[in-house]
# Entry
Amino acid sequence: MGHLKLEILCLVVGSVVALLALNIDSALANTGSNADEEGGPVFVKEPPSKVDFSNSTGAEIPCQSRGTPQPEIIWLRGDGTAVGDVPGLRQVLASGALVFPPFRAEDYRQEVHSATYICLARNSIGTIHSRDVHVRAVVTQVYDTHGDQEYIIKGNSATIRCKIPSFIADYLDVVSWHDSDGNVYKLDNRGVFEDGKFVVLPSGELHIKDVRPEDGFKEYRCQTKHRLTGETRLSASAGKLVITDPQGSTAPRLSGDTQISGFARMGMKGSTFGLICPSQSFPPGIFKWYKFTDGSSRQPVQLDDRLKQLGGTLIIREAKVEDSGKYLCVVSNSVGEESVETVLTVTAPLAATVEPAVQTVDFGRPATFTCHYQGSPVKNITWMKNGKRLPQTEAVIRIDAVRREDRGMFQCFVRNDQDSAQSTAELKLGGRFDPPRLTFKFREEVLQPGPKVSLKCKATGNPSPEIVWELDSKKVTNADRVQVGQFVGENGEVVSHVNITNVHSNDGGVYRCTAISKVGSATHTGRLNIHGLPHVKSMDKAQVVAGSGMVKTCPVAGYPIDAVIWEKDNRVLPINRRQSVFPNGTLVIDNVQRNMDQGTYTCVARNAQGYTSRGNLEVQVMVPPKIRLFSPPDDIVAGESAEIQCTVTGDTPIKIVWSFQGFSTTLNSMKGVQISKLGDKKSLLNIDSLSAENSGNYTCSAKNSAGIANYTTSLIVQVPPRWIVEPTDRAFAQGSDAKIECKSDGFPKPSVAWKKAAGDGPMDYRDLKGSAPGMRVEDGNLVISAIPKQAEGYYLCEANNGIGAGLSAVIYISVQAPPQFEIKFRNQTARKGEPAVLQCEAKGEKPIGILWSRDGKRLDPKPDPRYTIREEILSNGVLSDLSVKRSERTDSALFTCVATNAFGSDETSLNLIVQEPPEVPFGLKVLDKSGRSVQLQWSESFSGNSPITRFYIEYKMSKSDWNSGKDRVLVPGSQTMASVYNLRPATTYHLRLVAENEVGTSEASQSVTIITAEEAPSGPPTGIAVEPVDQHTLKVTWKPPLREEWNGDIMGYYVGYKLASSDKPYLFETVEFSREVGKEHHLMISNLKTYTEYSVVVQAFNRIGPGPMSKEVAQHTAEGKPDHAPQDISCTTLTSQSIRVSWTSPPLASANGVIKGYKVIFGPASSWYDEKTKEIKATPSSEIILHGLKKYTNYNMTILAYTNGGDGIPSTAVSCHTEQDVPGPPTAVKASVMSGDAILLSWQPPSQPNGVVTQYTVYQRTVEPKESEATSQKIPSFQTTYEISGLKRKERYEFWVTAHTAIGEGQPSKSATTSPSNKVPAKIASFAEKIVATHRDEVKLPCQAVGVPAPEIKWKVKGQMLTQSNRLRVLPDGSLLIKEVTRKDAGDYACKAENSNGHDTIMHTLVVQAPPQPPSISLAGATGTAITVRLKSPSDSAPLHGLTIHYKQDFGEWEATQIPPNMSEYTLEGLNCGTRYQIYATSYNSIGTGEASDILNTRTKGQKPGVPSAHKFIEVSQNSVTLHLSSWDDGGCPMLYFVVEYKARHQSDGWTMVSNSVKPSGNYVVLDLSPATWYQLRVTAHNNVGFTQAEFEFATLTLNGNQVGPARTNDNGRGLLLEVFPWLPEWVDYNMIVAGCAMIVIIVVGLAVICIAVSRRNRGPESFRLRDEGLYAQPDMRGMTLKREFRDELGYIAPPNRKLPPVPGSNYSTCDRHKKGMNHPTWNGRRPAAATGVPHTYEELANGGGGIYYDDHPPVPPHAHSDDSSLYSKPPNGVPGQDEEICPYATFHLLGFREEMDPSKGSNGLTLPHGSTTLPPPGHGHHRGGSQSAPRGSNTTRYGRGPVGSGVVSSVAGGGTVGPNGIINPPNHVFSPEYDDPANIEDEYGYNSPNRRGSLGRRSMGSMRTVPIPESPSPPPPPPRPSDSPNSTPSHSQMNQSNDSKESNELSEAECDRDPLIRNRNSVSGGAPGNMSTEEMRRLIENRNQNEAHSIPNGLTPYDTVNV
# Structure
């Protein structure tokens, strides 16, 4: 059955194969009919042969084709494998394009980006390939190009090359050159640049002709362009010429690279080439170019517009292929000659065309395709058919007889090393092609033996096919039972039959019918199965060629067949991997080998019943012939014999045949050729006598039955040269053209060379180079154009081809000529004082006569003995010498030498130049100079008849000497102007000039002296170091730059810093330059981030500007505390006494350092606020296990990170509860007898429950009279008593109790024993306890009692019997209930139970926990930015959890901070400087927050900035002024910024703003000032308190660094006076006006003083009179007290402390407000309101004088800096305030002593603080200077100072005076500080607030204190601000009372109400407050003091108010 299935399967497979073959044949048969419709693929857009692209741009390579059907596009690699997509690197588009996207450099892959690709197009017609596509991706790399440095001899041509890195050289083109003068030499569109001197060659070299010394001063940079990216850039370094002077005559010598320019660009036709001939010589050589033609002959290059010679460079434009070849450059001068050969290859793009493009050929007809190609060079030609390479390599491919398989696409490829091209042609089959096609096929059948069988096949075709039948691969022929027939039907079909009668089983097998014609064939195979036993038919011997494969199917008959196997040597096959056996009986053997596969094979067929049949197959393996390689000798010479042996391997018989040049018959006709057979496998070819005809290709062919082998070798016969034309001696006339033939023959072709003898004899022959001009070799002939005399001599002609000794011939060429001088004119030099010899050598036929002449006159040496003539006969002429002894300047003349012989005459001239060193240059002057260069000009002196070759500019520093310290600058001799560079700025130099010619040098000229200009420093500071000082500060130290890099005087340094990781610019601070030698500068950079790396640079600056920055120095600030707490804190309970805590680190940015570890702070949550209960454990890891904890306790824990800078912020507390454990024993047990059989057992819970108590167990047992086992009883956890009954009276019992938790039973309590009794005394079962209650809660005190009779319960509270009420009452169970517990309820509570049998008492202690009591707060200290307070917390029952400090500044919002409860002092930091603050504190506990403490009013320290002295602050120079900002006193508050303005002193318009944000550190430089000019400078300093403005005057230095004197005017002040009083007439004498006014003022002041003095002398108490003892004129009142008698006599009452604050409110009007109608009444101490006790003070006014200019004066005392800016500066608008005008006069109340001494009037006129009328204790001295009306003692410049230079001496408060120059003379005494004025309160009370307008004086004029004394008593708090309305009352809360406190900026209206005319006068007039006139005020005072007032003629009364 299995055999049947196998047969069916074979039949099915065979049918399918036959059907497929039929369909294919049908399709091919229809090819002819569809030829017009179908077409093979043709490229429409073929890829280029070379694709270069940048990785930044990518590339897309197109490939499109057409055809019918549409071709498919496939990309292949160069090796033929298909190309796939590589993601991101390579992609094949549907359009057929190959895309290379842009890629990163690291993604470069050589197999993708540097490979050869082929585009393949195919359809059903055929396949074509594109040309090879060479793809190369270029990865963008950083590169630099550099100009070359060329050494050249002056006068020659130089070539400067652009050095390009090799990895980028293929993609860069040099497009232009740029020199340092700004000239650009750019290639034109033809690829070259030429302007006469400069030539840019196509390859990029810069060619400079006739180099001169000035060319060496330039620099040349090349500009390149990237061909792929288009990027252009200049070379990183410049090329230079190093020009040297010739040192004598030099023969030409070649240098450099002679490579052809332009070849790197593939040498395309049409390009421009430059052939370089780099040579140097002196004198400069003459260049000639030749081109070799016909091998060795050369022709001069014919120059035209296309071929030009520029210097030694040959330029070839629009190159042609014919220009290719070998070129020779010959350079010669009078010394010698040199040459160099260069090979030029001009390539043309390749192109190919195949003709015909489409060819239709009938079967059997020939076909020819011809490949026409263009371009150069062509390396090879190849053909392909349908993508398969053909062996043809010729341009023509021929097909003798076209067959069906020849149909398809043919391609011709032409290639060279750089390019390739292809063309396509299609071969179509003609109409006669109709391959055979089977139209009917027989079927496979299974039959029984006996019947007949007929097999039929039908076929059609053109021509008609023949059908052949085979059975098991053997042809079926007619036999007894088998008939084969065939006929042609009516429709042209061929019908064939195989008829078998009485079929046998042996007739079964595989039948095949094959239709064959010359066009093709068609086959059908099928099996006929006949039932029967297996039968293997006989098989013919098989012959197989070794190395091929063998396929053999076993011919088996019979059916069914179960298996077919093959055997060899009784082994079943296969036995190796080359053998395969298939189920259908087919044996396949690959690569057949004779020794293994030859032999007998047996086929065995077996059926299912086991019957077998066997058949043998003899296999013979035949070996084809193989020829061993052979070759003839290489050095065979003609005439010798040669033998060539051909040895063959393989099966015999072998036939060996020889052929020559492809023809075997040719050998038969050749003479001397013999062929001998050496055995069966060798053949010998022998040639007796070789000749040139024997050269060629010899082929040995071997053939046997297995195959054919051929091998060809070349035989080259070398023939030595022989003469064709041998040269002979010749004679020529001078100047004629000479030609001498020399020709030879041989193989290889001999080369002919001519040489000339170096001497007179026939020896020492040398090349013809330089022998004579016009001498050349053409085709072996020696040609001499216009033969000169020097061409005469022996010549050698040599012919040589390397074979033999060669040929040579020596000839003599003679030249007959008249005398001739080679040089017609020359200059000859001689040095003055030295001898000179003039020579003239005439060549020609002798004899020759010589005559000399001088300047056209015949020279006779007899008159002048200095001249001598001598002649010498030479072999070729005459030499004549004219000698001159001791040459003089007059010997400079033209000498002529005339030579004469029989053939003619000639003459030569010699110009004798007597030379001497040049004279001294003169007129050296400076044209221009800068910091590093100077330009000089001079006049040229006599050159000494020798051109001045150079000038030397010698220069040196002023401190150096000319011998050792000078430098030189070389200047070409043609220039009279030059520059000296590389000088040092700000340096004195001496310069002089020296001229030089070839004779010598001149003396040095007179020197000139210059000082170079300053420049910014050229070097950075040195020794820069940065060290951390603290967490926010870095210390930068450095040293100045090197001294030679200062370029002037260093004025300071800019120190820049920034975050190291930041890209932002540096922040710079200025540091003053220290002039101490070797001192190290430093700067503290503050306000930096903690543990942050900063980059620091330092640069020095001088008057010109800053120099270069130093290198960055990076440094970290010191480590700080972490800003964030650890994160992700989690805790896990492990046991009842351990907890695991874990966390993660805080963010790295907040660590502020390197985290060293972590601290875990933990404690019970119930006492978390008690620091004593907390524990701390440190660990370096992020996890810790806490051991030894309390059982079943809730723990709080926080974690903090710490660094070297300290502990960080702790995290938020997390809680964890330890696990439960067995409880401890109950605390106490009581057994109370209740009756004769019952006992009440009570107990207290365990002190350590260690969990939740779930129950109790009560144990009992009998102990007397005998012990018993204990019994137990479970009791609920809420019950602590248990009644035990059923006891016996006579027995004693023991009881104990245990507690239980979820873990288990705890330890037992102490036992209690008792016995029941009928007598039961009172007993309290409850236990005495300490009970803690919360404020306002309800509490129950237990008192459970037993006894018989029932006991009476009594309570005592704190020792007193309890009186019950609704709040306190006794409950029925005896307990005491207290409702709404308060602090007062805390104490001891006693409960007593009593009956007739006894009594019992317990004591409870009640603790009441309430919010804490208010803490106390006091001031501990203050600084400018911090206040330290002292805290004291009252003790309380509930533990404090902490305190809260609340604080705010005036007009600010409240802020709060919490502190631990145990902190006694706390510092509030980060406060504003000089600001008033309110502070109070509260404390809190677990109950709540307590009441607030009293408010503490205080302030931080600090004042406005203090003004420095001008000489410390200002440092002037020529064009700038340096401001030393550190000289300002900051007033205790950090400076914020400065505002700097300036203007010229007499400038009328506004100020020039320099900067409004100058940083306060270091120095600040104001630049761009004019030298020798007076300026006014206004500087405003700002700090947190306010600002201070000051004006200064200074003058810049002159250009010579001198100071400027004071400005003078010639009008004696007339201009200034006209500005003030423009209405004055011109005739007024201004000097007289000034003098008269001064006299009037003196008289008025004097009278006033006299009147006041007389009034005081004559009136008032004795103590007031001036003649009395100066009680009030004591210089020092410290500690002074009045004598009792004085006090009693005067009725003196010591005034209170006069340290009064300024009056809050706006009680004084400014002029501006007054003008606007906003009048405010002046505060009057005598008003009724004052009588009520409302306090008041008086505000003082600042001096409103003119501007103050500062000179160099003694420094201001330190305490004076506390005054505001009006002390030292004139406000911007001339007024004290920012917005308001201050009237020029202020009103002061001069209060009389009567008011101050009268107690009853103290409230009317006495200024008392806070309304206090309490008199101070006696013993205080009172000085009149302490009054508010007296001048204030101070050595400041505030009061009474006149303008500088006014000549007025102004008095200064406190006794000082101001001199005419504004210099202050300080007083020699200081008054007591005990009684100060109200304005001094600003130091203590914070009235110097930034919110106040700093307009008027802040201190009264009454104080004489100059030095603040800390021991002064603290002042009272400021008074409340009175309202503007009399009816208003102050209503300010305690919290905000200071918010309404202001210092008035307003003036008394008394100064503003006056008539303007009066206010403009200088007289003193009375001032009245309010609406009162002066007279009304006077009368009011007189009414109050009738007994004391005295009239004074001038209207003043004592103690009246006057305007001062």
In short: Residues 1-36, 257-266, 1663-1971, 1984-2004 have pLDDT under 50 and may be disordered. The longest helix spans residues 1630-1658. The CA atoms of residues 159 and 207 lie 5 Å apart. The longest strand covers residues 904-915.
